[in-house]
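Translate sequence into structure tokens.
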Amino acid sequence: MPRALETRRRPSKDYAIHSVEKAFDLLEAMCEGGGELRISELSQRLEMDKTNVFRLLSTFENRGYVERVDGSGGYRLGLPAYAMAQKLLSHMGLLRKARPAMARLARLSGEAVYFMAPRMGEVLFLDVADSSHQVKVVSLVGRCFALGTSAAGQVFRVFAPNTDRPLANKAQGVMEFPEENRTKIRQSGYCYNENGIDEGVSLLSAPLFGAEGEVVAALAVLGPSYRLPRERIDGDLAPQLLETARGISTSLGYHRDYMLRIAS
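Result follows.
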């Protein structure tokens, strides 16, 4: 059985990376502190060596998530940290509107339905209405994949072309995406592929539009490939997905013709 289809998996703590946990501890302390915090204060709060605190702060400072306050020796959260929080809150608002429709589609199809958002050249799986089957793909919530490696990312590359810009670095695993393929996807309204996320896993995705017709997120049906053959996709699953995506887009303020927007 492919790794992604295992019905049991190791506890998530088995995969924990200590240095990453410490980095999140520091960020959480910065958030709770609200204003400026010195290295000595963070060291005491986190029970962490001052040298390690300094190294973590320097790393976050290089990325802009933390900034040093001139003259005081303290540190505070930088603008990128606030920008990330705002984006997360925005997507949480979208999720609240999407969840009822996601749950209905999951019940109708029996498969997992995911809410996905673009994130710096990747696609982030934010939420799921899970499959009712005993054998299912392990949860992908919180995981990111390169935009160019599966239908999860292709939906953004086709319907929100500006997301292609961060993909110039071929080391990210970006596949060539011929215009011919883009045209076919626009004609059908959805992206579909097998083995893009993992061996034996198929995914079908469609865009979600905001009030101005911009792509704000995407919806995906995901499951074992043996349950998602092409015949089922073309038969009932694709129409169900597109109708659900249209309804969610309407709830997000997009009141024009969904299929005309897809074809444009």
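Note: The CA atoms of residues 250 and 256 lie 8 Å apart.
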